[in-house]
């Protein structure tokens, strides 16, 4: 007798959810960008020039600063911004322990002494810990507006006083606000990145220094251009880090849409909040982020805390869920800073966060269905069982 094998139809697999999808943004701006690029190609004005001047003016006005200086990338913006403000050897600079390495790297490349400080429960620089680390050699504090939410700049200013430089690392916070202050316009000098995945991203690399100080602005313009503004003028040793016109054109076009894209991110964050509150009501080990009172969070990243992150990460990958870790180690525990002799335990909250944080997919245009898929997979990974099929009515 021959046995007939039959199969039960199964639902098609869910499509993967990318961690970041820039396709819709690119398609939206492509016609206008091509028009501007064609104009640049006809004039061959590729480095600095009118397009860069235009964007610098637009971005300064948007950020609430008097000046914006376009440079090659966000790391250069930090380093040149610090140098332009006079930071160098013998100066101590306080930075949050939980940040991308570029924040610390810029301080070290200036020849200054890196002083990591702890963060609060919302991953932002803790003013109380900063107060405990101030010394007569403290020349600057770098407030990192991490994940899209501004650090407590007003409180930090009260703590450090008028004689310590307040620097904003605004690479993840274009459009954010807090306590009536605007990201990029709240400190003495700010640095931002236009890496493609940022809220305001170029089609390549780019960055900017923001300041309302004429002196810092003028020196930053020299430092980005071999130490001088005019051709063959070298007043000091600088570097070659100039925003090119093609990227400036992209950024000008995108800047007109930034608030709308940030609003989409905010709506997606609210959906995540509702989904996670329902799905994890009985699982306190899952900690969701929040928007602080008086703040406008622009949700560059949506970061949760999970138990047993390696297992959760593996389960999300198996479910086709893109995700990230921002950041897996505090800056004082990286191999690149080992020579400083900084020990575990100096930033306990940052160190604890580093073992649990996980970034979920977040980008303008992420759909409700994609977010529900993410939360169901996360529930299965954390609690061993699926979340309800329909969490949001």
Output the keywords.
alpha/beta; Aspartate Aminotransferase, domain 2; Aspartate Aminotransferase, domain 1; 2 domains; seven-stranded mixed sheet; 12 helices; about 35% helix
- Name the CATH superfamily classification of the largest domain: Type I PLP-dependent aspartate aminotransferase-like (Major domain)
Contiguous helical run count:
12
Tally of individual domains:
2
Question: From the coordinates shown, what is the CATH architecture of the largest domain?
Answer: 3-Layer(aba) Sandwich
**CATH class of the largest domain, anyone?**
Alpha Beta
Topology, number of strands: 12
Radius of gyration, in angstroms, nearest whole number: 23 Å
Order of helices and strands: HHEHEHEHEHEEEEEHHHEEHHEH
What is the strand content? 5-15%
- Please describe the biggest sheet, giving its number of strands, its sense, and whether it closes into a barrel: 7 strands, mixed
Q: Mean pLDDT score, rounded?
A: 94
Q: What is the name of the CATH topology of the largest domain?
A: Aspartate Aminotransferase, domain 2
Class based on secondary structure composition and strand pairing: alpha/beta
Which outline best applies?
Answer: globular
The share of residues in helices is 25-40%
From the N-terminal CA to the C-terminal CA, the straight-line distance is 53 Å
